[in-house]
Amino acid sequence: MPAIDQQAGLSEGMVGPADNLVAITPSDSTDLANVSRAIYVGGAGNIVVTPYGGGSNVTLAVVAGAVLPIRVSRVLSTGTTATGLVNLY
What we know:
With 89 residues, the protein is mostly beta strands. The protein is built from no helices and 7 strands. It has a domain at 34-88. It has strands at residues 21-23, 38-40, 45-51, 58-62, 67-68, 72-76, 86-88. It is globular and about 45 Å long.
């Protein structure tokens, strides 16, 4: 029996849960296919991101298991040492 979506038809705001989870392959030249709502971090390290709203790239030191509530358009490979990154959107 397929799962029932009790939230179908409701407006999805930024405070609602993500609907999709996709592994992130960091890249210095390619944007994410979908802007993130949050990023899950599997393994500790640094993550270098391009904010969706514009501005300079930012390096964040992150711990394993963190969920970063950030909207980014790109996760760069140069400088990113954290592993197991997942785009929640």
